[in-house]
Amino acid sequence: MATRIGVLALQGAVSEHVHALENSGSQVSLVKNIGDLEGLDGLVLPGGESTMMRRMMDRYGLFEAVKQFAAEKPVFGTCAGLILMAKQIEGRKGPHLSILDIDVKRNAFGRQVESFEADLAIKGISEHYTGVFIRAPYIKSAAANVDVLATYEDHIVACRQGRFLCCAFHPELTSDPAMHRYFVQW
């Protein structure tokens, strides 16, 4: 039986995540309200703008529901999704979901016009993976219980902690479903 993965569908490259998850053998559901979380085996928090995503989660009553979901099920955050998951965010008074033992820096690699692609070695996933970085954060530090999966220019850009996976880049914008497949096949 295929896993059923939800994609938080408030902002970002939602359809691209859906496509990558389906190519990884999952059934996919869009999550726009609390009821959409029922029956899911995992959840993807896509890229976008983390502050706006948080506002929308609050507006639709999804913030606490996603936090409760994450207490039991796997979550994969990409770019802004990584920021939503972090326990510390440079320049922000407090975290959002605070479920991943990392400290992040928003827009760490520059503005939109400074977006780039980089060849990454991602531990346990791929020796040559194209990371698409768009206004990307990076992980400044990670607790000892966090497994660093990839770095770029000495900055952590992908990690896993238990049932949580995150990356600073946009795996949904490549034709390589390796990151999504890794998440789905736990």
Task: Give a quick rundown of the structure.
Its EC number is 4.3.3.6, 3.5.1.2. 23% of the residues lie in helices and 35% in strands.
Topology of helices and strands:
Elements: E1 4-8, H1 14-23, E2 27-31, E3 42-45, H2 50-59, H3 62-70, E4 75-78, H4 80-85, E5 86-89, E6 100-105, E7 116-122, E8 126-133, E9 138-142, E10 147-152, E11 155-161, E12 164-167, H5 178-184
Helix/strand structural class: alpha/beta
Strand fraction = 25-35%
Largest sheet: 7 strands, mixed
The termini sit apart by 14 Å
Task: Find the CATH topology.
Answer: Rossmann fold
Helix content: 10-25%
Can you tell me about this structure?
Catalyzes the hydrolysis of glutamine to glutamate and ammonia as part of the biosynthesis of pyridoxal 5'-phosphate. The resulting ammonia molecule is channeled to the active site of PdxS. One of its GO terms (molecular function) is glutaminase activity. Its EC number is 4.3.3.6, 3.5.1.2. The active site is at residues 79, 170, 172. Pfam families: SNO. A hairpin with a 2-residue loop joins strand 10 and strand 11 (155-161). It is built from 5 helices and 12 strands. It has 186 residues and is α/β, with parallel strands linked by helices. The chain has one domain: 3-Layer(aba) Sandwich (Rossmann fold). The strands form 3 sheets. A 7-stranded mixed beta sheet has the order 2-1-3-4-12-11-10. A 3-stranded mixed beta sheet has the order 5-6-9. Strands 7-8 form a two-stranded antiparallel sheet. It is globular, with a radius of gyration of 15 Å. It has helices at 14-23, 50-59, 62-70, 80-85, 178-184, and strands at 4-8, 27-31, 42-45, 75-78, 86-89, 100-105, 116-122, 126-133, 138-142, 147-152, 155-161, 164-167.
